[in-house]
Amino acid sequence: MPAERLKMRRVREILRYRFEEGLGHKSIAVRVGAAPSTVRETLRRLERAGFSWPLGDDVSDAVLEAALYKAAGTKTGHRRSAEPDWAHVHRELKRKHVTLQILWDEYIGLHPEGYRYSRWCDLYRGWALKLPVTMR
């Protein structure tokens, strides 16, 4: 589960504790109420953003947040290949003589760098497990 984004007030506290008081990650984490890894990551983000302490008067909370979290939401995760339309795959499987192998062959024809067969089947089965079960 991803961690919750820190409020800018807490980010400023982390920076003040680190650069004015010279505290370590664990001490800062206890005082701010965050994990030491969060403190480390916040300081790493600050370094990558090119800010230095003390922050200038022109650095508002909105500017600081935009600079620290500009890459948020851009990570693609473990699914880096083209996703098939699982609903279409599910409908096609209901047809006579249609198998996952046949549908995967069509998928890999369209997306040669796509998922290999076993991963493709795992993803489909994971998707299918989320379908609601209904009685007719």
TrEMBL record:
<dbReference type="InterPro" id="IPR017895">
    <property type="entry name" value="HTH_IS408/IS1162_type"/>
</dbReference>
<feature type="domain" description="HTH IS408-type">
    <location>
        <begin position="11"/>
        <end position="93"/>
    </location>
</feature>
<protein>
    <recommendedName>
        <fullName>HTH IS408-type domain-containing protein</fullName>
    </recommendedName>
</protein>
